[in-house]
């Protein structure tokens, strides 16, 4: 299938083009504003499907909105008609078209001309009234509140003023692309609301709650924490936020406690998920030799040879587990068991430890 995408370098266009490139059966015509119109005309004569995503989001002028959303749309449809090509056309509109803002007014004008084109030619058209779309690669300060907030918060800067009480309707870019790609599958039925197609997965959140969540992600790096990702929106917001971290700021040091016997480094610490540490134990050294009242642990040896021993205080019976980085095995240490990890090999032993309770210097819960 020969597929024409306008606005191919835009936020949605980039994602769609990448998805289409994964389909070996497709020939992609990636057009962006500024390219020769003759090229667009040739593609309009040959294409089998049009994704019309060209947008004027980086502008704030009404004349630019109308020039792209109405004027360029009219040009595109005339080129299709001139080539007697009645292939399906998808048009990316906005929920703002129902509110008649300056931006919405131009999108509504684009909708109207697309619907008129469908009536006159019989071509199948798919008009998506999209909410605010978020995800990686969206440019900040261009009508994308999530992108703008992520960009500034990730840099420790005050976020630009926005209405914290306003309720935002959001769609994740992956869900949008999935809905668009579904148009190419004959068995897929596009979900509609009247004349308009809709993305099935829409999230609602007020601006203040959104900012609080993103600022929480920023603080996680300070305390080695982990985000709560059980909620689908939070999971996608976290992935989006991470994509806005400065490229030269993707690493940060951990608190590594080291002595002649080895080292211990806390990797992740969260009151909701516990703590993950990486312990390095020198050959012949036993680490631990203590027990906890309320903390349980899981040990995973990833390198080296070890012996994990534990028993209840006061009991003579001792249980031993031989462990090796050659065969990854988890050994669980229940609360109330004395335990020790001994390096019985000739190289350093690396032990990844999960603890159900984060280390607290005021309440260490550790008894020799």
Describe what is shown at a glance.
30% of the residues lie in helices and 29% in strands.
Explain this structure.
Helix 1 (11-21) packs across helix 6 (173-182) and helix 5 crosses helix 8. By secondary structure, the chain is an alpha/beta fold. It is elongated, with a radius of gyration of 29 Å. The protein has eight helices and 20 strands. The chain has helices at 11-21, 37-46, 62-82, 102-121, 145-154, 173-182, 207-223, 232-242; strands spanning 2-6, 27-31, 49-52, 89-94, 125-130, 132-134, 167-172, 192-193, 196-197, 203-206, 256-259, 262-270, 274-281, 286-290, 297-303, 305-311, 319-324, 330-333, 338-343, 349-355. The chain starts with a strand and ends in a 13-residue tail after the last strand. The chain is 30% helix and 29% strand. The model has no long low-confidence stretch (mean pLDDT 93). It has a seven-stranded mixed sheet with strand order 2-1-3-4-5-9-8, sandwiched between helices. A six-stranded antiparallel sheet has the order 11-12-13-20-15-18, with no helix packed on it. The chain folds into two domains: 2-211, Rossmann fold; 256-355, Jelly Rolls, CATH 2.60.120.10.
């Amino acid at each position: 299938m020969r597929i024409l995408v306008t606005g191919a370098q835009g936020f949605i266009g980039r994602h769609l083009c990448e998805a289409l490139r994964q389909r070996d059966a497709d020939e992609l015509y990636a057009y962006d504003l500024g390219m020769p119109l003759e090229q667009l005309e040739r593609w309009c004569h040959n294409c089998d499907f049009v994704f019309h995503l060209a947008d004027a989001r980086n502008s704030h002028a009404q004349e630019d909105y109308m020039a792209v959303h109405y004027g360029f749309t009219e040009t595109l449809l005339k080129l299709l008609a001139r080539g007697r090509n009645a292939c399906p056309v998808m048009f990316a509109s906005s929920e703002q078209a129902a509110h008649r803002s300056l931006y919405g007014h131009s999108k509504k004008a684009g909708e109207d001309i697309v619907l008129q084109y469908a009536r006159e030619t019989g071509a199948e058209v798919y008009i998506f009234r999209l909410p605010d779309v978020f995800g990686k690669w969206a440019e900040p300060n261009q009508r994308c509140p999530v992108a703008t907030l992520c960009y500034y918060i990730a840099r420790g800067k005050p976020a630009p003023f926005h209405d914290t009480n306003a309720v935002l309707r959001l769609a994740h870019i992956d869900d949008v692309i999935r809905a668009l790609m579904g148009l190419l599958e004959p068995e897929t039925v596009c979900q509609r609301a009247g004349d308009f197609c809709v993305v099935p997965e829409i999230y609602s959140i007020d601006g203040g709650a959104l900012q609080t969540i993103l600022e929480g992600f920023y603080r996680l790096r300070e305390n080695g924490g982990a985000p709560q990702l059980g909620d689908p929106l939070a999971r996608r917001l976290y992935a989006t936020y991470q994509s806005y971290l400065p490229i030269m700021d993707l690493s940060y040091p951990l608190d590594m406690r080291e002595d002649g016997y080895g080292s211990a480094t806390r990797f992740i610490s969260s009151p909701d998920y516990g703590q993950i540490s990486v312990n390095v134990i020198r050959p012949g050294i036993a680490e631990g030799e203590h027990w906890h009242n309320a903390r349980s642990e899981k040990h995973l040896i990833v390198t080296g040879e070890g012996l994990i021993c534990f028993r209840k205080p006061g009991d003579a019976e001792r249980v031993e587990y031989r462990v090796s980085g050659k065969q990854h095995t988890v050994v669980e240490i229940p609360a109330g068991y004395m335990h020790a990890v001994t390096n019985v090999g000739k190289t350093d032993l690396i032990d990844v430890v999960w603890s159900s309770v984060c280390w607290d210097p005021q309440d260490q819960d550790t008894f020799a």
